[in-house]
Amino acid sequence: MLTTATGNRAVAAAAKEARPGVVAAYPITPQTEIVEQIAAYVAEGSLEADYIPVESEHSAMAACIGASAAGARTFTATSSHGLLYMHEMLHWAAGARTPVVMANVNRALGPGWNIWAEHTDAFSQRDTGWLQVFVASIQEAYDATLMAFRIAEDERVLLPVMVNLDGFLLSHITQSLETVDVGDFIPPFSLPHAIDTTRPRGYGTLTPPETYYQFRWDMERSMRASREVIAETEAEFARRFGRVYGPTEDYRCEDADVVVVALGTLGKEAEVAVDRLRSEGVKAGSMRLRWFRPFPALDLSGREVVVIDRDYSFGFGGVIAHSIRSTTRAEPYSVIAGLGGQEVTYDDIAGFVRRREAGREDWFGVSD
Amino acid sequence: MNPLPSEEYVYKCTTACAGCTSSLSLRYVLKAAGPDTVLVVPACCTSVLQGVYPATAMNVTVYNIAFAAAAATASGMAAAFRRQGRPTNVICYAGDGGTVDIGIQSLSGAFERGTDFLYICYDNEAYGNTGMQRSGATPIGAVTTTTPAGKTDTKKDIDRIVAAHGLPYMATACAAYPQDLYAKVKKALSIPGPKFIHLLSPCPPGWRYPTERSVEVGRLAVKTGLWVLYERVHGELTINPVSKVAMKRPAPIEDYLRIQGRFRGISDEAKSALRAAMEQQHRRLLAEEAGSC
Predict the structure, then answer these.
(1) What backbone torsions phi and psi does residue B243 show, to the nearest 5 degrees?
(2) Beta strands of chain A (E only): which ranges?
């Protein structure tokens, strides 16, 4: 059905379509509309689920872990400080192999208080064992949320998935949305290690050095296998619903001499910049990175690369710039832009490309 | 008195310390709960005493979870079980640190939102698993590794905090009275909604007394009146007869303090504070019980 929705409403609609049994959540700007909408679905009876209004994000993730272990599909949503507050439980969810799906509306971290878009919240969860996908449109927020359930719950994966969308730039804008009848695209929830009290087991028992690493290796094995599961799921989604997704969204990259790599809405903005640059005779392309974990294998050989990071790792650099540097042979021009919702236009991005200098890092707006 | 079930859900191969009363109590808790039970365990001594992977001393499902997260995990678990029509008991078994300190937020949240579960705080009055540091539940005057001169603050009254949530069932218990504990767990599990049992668990290495005296120490806690056994069912308080007797004719609290190394050298001020807190609690409970009847 063709409709219109905000990013938040699109995520809520997709979560509803996946029929979770338990949603445990805590409000935080700019995510709140997602959980309000799900609470409304449950109250009106259009979603038969338990909505658990927890007293913190730490408890939101704990409740999702408990519910998932007890055999229920689970969903939650958060943002920024909420995501950081549940950090401990993000590690637990992945280690316990509970395939929780969570929307994270990307927002900067205090101090000072800032409610606008930034990716540092999600990147701070880099090593938790969660899969992370970043979207750039309302439609993609909806589609990625649906696919997240199928990917997370696949027996080859059984790891939680975080769907990231930029605060306000996606959460609060309205675009057209084609909803789907999900049918059997998401199979019934089945967790092979769900609690069965007729077969008592210890979960998360004290695990000594002789065996602990085996569980960690098993997580990594699943993370590696998830690449194939993601590809299969995206291919099946395209076959059923007609929209095509991959590890990146490439725009005019085929013959590009210089490629802009960015995530989320900055990646979409870069497409307009590419058109501008092409009209000036610069053979530019845009490679919008969709998956952050598992990090995709990118082919950037023979091109100049401009990376825009809406994040920063202090004392080190832009997270994506360094990820590109360490996984490809590229020596990117690194631009730190868009922090705390700093406005970045396609003209600005075109300027980054014109000023590019391999190996250099610039902070947009900083002139000293 | 009816004999307790012969089924064992805690086998003799636990890695608990000699004389541990929290593992002793767990035997009775699980005899009362039966096999269709999930024990949710945050970081505490029970995280360790259940055994080391791949072995376990437990014959019920045990779900280990992060320190602050037991009650919230139970909320999700209970919701999922009830949604599937499963009557499985969800029991949190948490130490005092995980209850009165780091876990109090999720505990309060789960009580407020009416989670159908039983939360048992086994209270050895310090962070035992990490080697006896003070917790909010450590009594005034007690020596711990972080209160080497004796604790200067009084024990946090978690029972009054819990009572303020208006639970359908809450009780106190003591490891030295296993029949009473068994009966209270049975009753708690027969009542839907959130339930709480505060279980005093004497700890030989932490309280510094010989391992064979755990039951004696627990009985003295009750007979001196320092620990009062009661239950509150839908707001109606009933004080155990043994505690009624102790309130009228208490054993000297020195008998309880003297056999524990943690109270060696306790100041007169701290002793007075212990006594004053005890007497205030007695007055409150007796007044409440009189009002309840």
Answers:
(1) -80, -30
(2) 2-6, 22-25, 50-53, 74-78, 101-106, 131-134, 161-166, 174-178, 202-203, 248-251, 258-263, 284-289, 291-293, 304-309, 333-336, 361-363
Rounded to the nearest angstrom, the minimum Cα separation between B246 and chain A is 40
Q: What is B21-292's CATH number?
A: 3.40.50.970
Range A248-363 has CATH code 3.30.565.10: no
The distance of Cα A232 from the centroid of its chain, to the nearest Å, equals: 18
Cβ-in-10-Å burial (0-12, 13-18, 19+) of A125 comes to buried
From residue A137, how far is each of A11, A168, A175, A275, A308 by CA, in Å?
11, 12, 8, 19, 18
Q: Which of A54, A213, A215 to mutate to test the interface with B (most CBs of B within 10 A)?
A: A54
Confidence of residue A367 (pLDDT cuts 50, 70, 90): confident
Contacts of A35 (CB under 8 A, 6+ apart): A12, A23, A25, A26, A27, A76, A77
Residues 60..99 of A with a Cβ closer than 8 Å to B: which? 60, 62-72, 74, 88-89, 92
What is the tens place of the pLDDT at every residue in A64-81?
999 999 999 999 999 999
* First CA to last CA distance, chain B: 25
Same fold, A2-178+204-241 and A248-363: yes
User: Is the model's pLDDT at B24 over the cut of 70?
Assistant: yes
Contact B145, B157 (CB under 8 A): no
Beta-carbon separation of A69 and B77 below 8 A: yes
Write the pLDDT tens digit of every residue in B123-166: 999 999 999 999 999 999 999 999 999 999 999 999 999 999 99
**Which is it for strands A304-309 and B117-123: parallel, antiparallel or unpaired?**
unpaired
Whether the pLDDT of residue A148 is over 70: the answer is yes
Per-domain boundaries in chain B: 21-292
Contact A63 B38 (CB under 8 A): no
Answer yes or no: do A62 and B47 touch at CB < 8 A: no
Residues 104-123 of chain B whose Cβ lies under 8 A from any Cβ of chain A: 105-106, 108-109, 112-113
SS3 A303: coil
pLDDT tens digit string along B29-68?
999 999 999 999 999 999 999 999 999 999 999 999 999 9
Measured CA to CA, the distance from residue A306 to residue A327 in angstroms comes to 15
> Cα(B64)–Cα(B70) distance, rounded to whole angstroms?
8
The residues spanned by each domain of chain A are 2-178+204-241, 248-363
- The amino acid that residue B151 corresponds to is K
The strand pair at A304-309 and A258-263 is best described as parallel
CATH of A2-178+204-241, one of 3.40.50.970, 3.30.540.10, 3.50.50.60, 3.40.309.10: 3.40.50.970
